Amino acid sequence: MKQTLSITRKELAIYFGSPMALIFIGAFLGATLFAFFWVDTFFARGIADVRPLFRWMPVLLIFLVAALTMRQWSEEQRAGTLEVLLTLPVSKAQLVLGKFGAVMALVALALALTIPLPITVALIGNLDWGSVIGGYLAALLLAAAYAAVGLFISSRTDNQIVALIATVLLGGVFYLIGAAGVTDFVGGALGGLLRSLGTGSRFESIERGVIDLRDLVYYLSLTGIFLALNILSVDSKRWSRGAASVAYRRGMALTSGLVIANLLLVNLWLYPLSVLRLDLTAGREYSLSRTTADLLGGLQEPLTLRAFVSEKTHPLLAPLVPQLSDLLREYEIAGRGKVSIEVVDPTQDPDKEIEANQTYGIQPTPFQIAGRYESSVINSYFDVLVRYGDQNTVLSFRDLIEVQARRDGQPDVRFRNLEYDLTRAIKKVVYGFQSIDNVLASLSAPVKLTLVTTPDTLPAELKDAPNIVKKVAQELQAKSAGKFSFETVNPDAPGAAITRQKMVDTYKLRPISASLFSSQTYYMDMLLQLGDPATGSGKTQVLAPEGELTEASVRTAVESALKRATTGFLKVVGWYTPPPQQTQNVFGQMQQDIETWQRAQQQLRGDYTVRSVDLSSGQVPADVDVLVLIAPRGLDDRARFAVDQYLMRGGSVIVAAGSYGLTVDQLGQNLALKPVAGGLAEMLDGYGIRIENSLVMDPQNEPFPVQVDRPLGNTVVREMQAVNYPFFVDVRPDGMDKASPIVGQLAAVTLNWASPLTVDAAKNQGRQVSLLLKSSANSWLRSSPDIQPNLKQYPGVGFAVEGERAARPLAVSVRGAFESAFKGQPIPAAADGLNRQPPASGQQAAAPTPTPAPQTGSVIEASPDTARLVVIGSSDFLTDIVFQISGSMSGDRYLNSLKLLQNAVDWSVEDLDLLGIRARGTAARVLKPMAAGDQTVWEVLNYGIALVALIVIGVVWVVRRRNERPMALEQR
Hints:
By secondary structure, the chain is α+β, with helices and mostly antiparallel strands. The protein has 32 helices and 35 strands. Strand 7 and strand 8 form a beta hairpin. Helix 10 runs parallel beside helix 15.
């Protein structure tokens, strides 16, 4: 080791004894900084990562290492000092490793001088240091492989220029064989093989922060192979050509051959393995999450994951196939025998293709491939089938990938969040397969159903109701293995555990008038107690069967409540949007309503059962887990009562509503706004959240395509231009509650034509309130519904800046106990029920309005503290037409709006597991907003640090030269 280090120090002294190290390192730093700030336009990207630093590293290292290694052996041969080295008492391996160590020391120094770049990114953004560590490790391994190649080539020639060119060519070959252009051109299995041999393609895996044992062994093997060849090459310089050295020459060649063969065999043996890896990224973004592992570990039936992937597919999809295969393998391992995976090419297996087409509806997708001289269409498969029991779902390539434009205009195709997409599909089919027997078996705490009824005062129509409830409860009790119990309580009976007063005080339930002009009242309510109240873990739900009380409605109400209390079952989203409204233009023609929300509904269907609800019945279906209200308008009191009582039962409600709705003007040509009538504003105000009757305008906004007249000589050209549109409020991370799981991981979200919210602190005392979104500090309010910009009168903005500038709340989430908006008020009349009004203390109940059928549940005047409410001051940010506008201007930016809705639903049903997986793939790695001048300061600072480092290296060289000159004179 001492001899090896001595050789390393000697080589480093030679490097720093001339301007060579200064020139090479300076050129490397200059090229790196130029590529980082100018080629990849770091600040224009706005992303807090160092991908631009490592994107060009495989190419830059080829030239740096080739320049450092070109003289190592070539100069020794040209100067005639090689013979002296070979006669020293040092082994050939020590000579080679010594020179290799000197090259790697200089490479490490050059890479260390780039560390100010990630430090800069960390200071102005939330950098993931895991990917940085992986990038530098990959750069060192790649440099080691290139250094071994360069040393071997240098040993084969005495001309430094020849060694430089040959090293660049061979290093370029290793890089290019794995490049996308070559593998796409070759395609198929050969393309995959070349990809595994390319130094650049292997670099990408480690650079993202995943240390795969296969990649480490590949680089170390490549380094070992060329170091072995270098040792053999140097040793051959002293071989004689006589018969006496034949045995020695054969032995050396055989030894080197065995070393190389063993290294190749190790790579072949490790190639199928994909589990021996370390994920360094924050949150382990490239590893299976605990949520996924727990889901797979709890499978009761076999799960099949089958990828239908054509060998000949689109060139941009081909690099994703190995990633898909590796992740499916991770699922198989985590499933512990319950998960079977297949990667098949339907075009090569007719039986599989028939099954894919006829059984699962999977069809090949036509891809257009354009070359320099021709274009063609390829019909290929890129789909994943998820099957569990009798449930199955299919993910197409559109469900899995995202496409972003690079600086050079080429598309960058990558998986959106592969684990999230696969896990949510698995969760959907697994939970959809569950039955009530599984519900009862999965109960972790006892459950008790209590029927509170007054048999002596029940109306004649409800005399059989207690027996119906009892029958259903006994059936469930028989299946529960002692986990489910049932009792009937008469609050009028002496010594009853639940009295009328307790029903009012504890459960906020008042009695119902028995009949017209009667002073008698009755109870017919079901209470489901979950857990043991003695331990403090118990909670009670009030059940309300939908419609007429029958065995089916009772069973649905009880089973739905049990499913909400347990995990492993597909949640139900109640979906409400207003019925379409036709308007008449000035020409007497009917105009269709432009507000539709199909894309938002489709997004939720990926994770939940989405069911449209009719609020006019005065009751939300019992199996609904979260109620989503988009643009509520034209509601009567009965519909508002349905929403109120659902929240009072401890439900979760999401309201997306502003003071204005989107429509078209009287000419039917331009977008316009109309005031919302019959909405939920008054009821929400009672809950402590007021929707103001105005619109938020923000200079920080998303552009909008506007028709503009541009003078051109004597004519006017009408064209579409992207202009600032203050009504499209662009909320960035500094305007979000980063502690909330709803928005904590969003990079940005746009709220269109949003109304500000006001949170009443007094009414929300004791609740958990989160201000999810707010506009920038420069936003202002506008009371006019005129949304057409006037760029001539107000250049740049299109509207007058009115009033005070300040940040405005745009979205709020609240969790806690709410008081009913109908407390102490006459209950809205229903077509199939009685009016109910609470009797005053000591007075006779007022006579109800007669209706055909009696009610079977009491009014709830306050909710438990588990109730959740999310209010977003815009409904149009989820409309399909807004998505079309945003997609035409900002690509897939509108997906953030869908993520906001889905995150709100996940939070409302407490499904934070999928929310956590989604966050792993959508972490907001963004830069802090800064002016152009500040960007220049950071850029100049990095150039200055590099310059100072080079000056220090230059000073070291000058000092060494001055110290060497007197020594040389003394020796003379």
